[in-house]
What we know:
alpha+beta; 3 strands; elongated
Amino acid sequence: xxxxxxxAATNIDTQHSAAxxxxxxxxxxxxxxxxxxxxxxxxxxxxxxxxxxxxxLETVNDAAKKRYRAIFYRL
Length: 75
């Protein structure tokens, strides 16, 4: 099972936003960050969730590719 946490922050003066992303799987943590579109913090939180889901998809796809390669090489 994978666990995903995201959080966003926005500088109220510049409207620059960024996200922190944490993916946990099999007791291991992967910490990531992402630059987000400028805007308010409310929108930044949604963009952070989207960035987190994209990162999770990449992580799962990479893990699946490694598994399939291992199976292929055993054949």
